[in-house]
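Posting for a labmate who doesn't have an account.
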Amino acid sequence: MGFARACSVALIGVDGVVVEVQADLEPGVAAFTLVGLPDKTLVESRDRVRAAVVNSGAAWPQKKLTVGLSPASVPKAGAGFDLAVAIAVLGAAEVVDPGAIADLVLIGELGLDGRVRPVRGILPAVLAAAEAGHRQVVVPQQCAAEAALVPDVSVLGVRSLRQLIAVLTDGEVPEEEPPDPPGRPDPILAGLLVPGAGLGTGLAPGRPGGDCADFPDLADVTGQHTARRALEVAAAGGHHLFLSGPPGAGKTMLAERLPWILPPLTRHDSVEVTAVHSVAGILPPGEPLVSRPPYCAPHHSATMQSLVGGGTGVPRPGAVSLAHRGILFLDEAAEFHSRALDALRQPLESGHVVIARAAGVVRLPARFLMVLAANPCPCGRHTLHGSGCECPPSVIRRYQARLSGPLLDRVDLRVQVEPVTRGDLLGRGGRGESTAVVAGRVRAARERAGVRFAGTPWRLNSEVPGQELRTRWQAAPGALAQAERELERGLLTARGLDRVLRVAWTVADLRGRDRPEALDVAVALELRTGIARGAMSMTGAGT
């Protein structure tokens, strides 16, 4: 008889649970039983592990073998348990020392020839192991750099089961062929991360160490001074933005430049975003840490599940989670299915999405900056000044009603993007400010907000409850008078008033003021309602 145990990690969304892999050998007819709520992929590990052990030069025990995964109530999925199962079996057979593997966390898939193959979710799995007190982790060599992002954890990257056995038995570690290069990111989910033209691969905004000079510059945008100002306010305060205008006015061009106005991710946010992308299987090969805000741009044919997450079995992250701490750009927003758009309302408020399935409930992070872009009518030529639109008024109303009132009520900034004038095209208005200049103001505004919110759970003005802004951080006396009149006239909802106040604080931060004044509130009202009040031209907006 023999018994041994090792550890692995089960992922539920981006949260990990340490699983004890127990192997028990008893006299009897040779059999291999796997218990503990495994899925079909994990059940198949019985054959993978047996072949890998034999092909690694170790003897497979010809006894009754039972492998249990504890806690048994937690669903286990995927091939990442293979390595832990193999080592636990070898420990029970006393091929390796059972005491040496008792607290060892092993994550990796085994090939039939004994090679250790990479798996998804290495970073969140190692984070869960570290939080549970484990300090030694074995992972596939291709994933070692990703695992090493977790501090105070000793990471061993192995190419094969044969190498790991040699390490555990103090034998001579055999030379192995270099591992296969890391696989390309999941083509389906990676396709959602599509930046603007000229940015190279779809994962470019998440690349560490990116230089803004290598990417589209805001100075390339001709005219559109109000939209440029709205972009700056959105970046400084994390406010959602709606750009409405005819084709060719520059809506997509503006949105594609927004990621480079945002500051780089903090270390905490980088690890958080990298964990989501690791679970989704879209980390770029050789670049384990995402340091720039991601930019996710799903096609308007996207389903509700692809936006918020889902799928059969264990739910996978959707576009809202892939855009966590970054930007979710919905181009041609009116063409999205209404159910898909309305499903965004809950994550817009809470910053996370909860997906319930028969196997359990998964909570995924989803705090993103949403940018909507849409034509004003089916033909796209309906503008404030009129440009030959022939759509009947009823058709225009139905088209614009595809974006529901409750969804738009959660959007702080709404800008009419008019066609570029001939003077702007000929350069009479001068070249606009560069991305670097605008990013500097955004960074300074965020630093002011960070000092104000120190010691609170909030970092951006868009995250602060309206009650706190009305009591703890009050605007200047009389500053809200105009907004209160709009509320009484029914042009603003109570939620809308709170959001105007949030935007006013962001405008004040950009202007270097200690608190919002009447002018800041007027700018916020102009940006929310789309009604020009002349306030924008008085705030010194960069052009």
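Reply:
Got it, the structure tokens are right above this. The first helix runs from residue 40 to 43.
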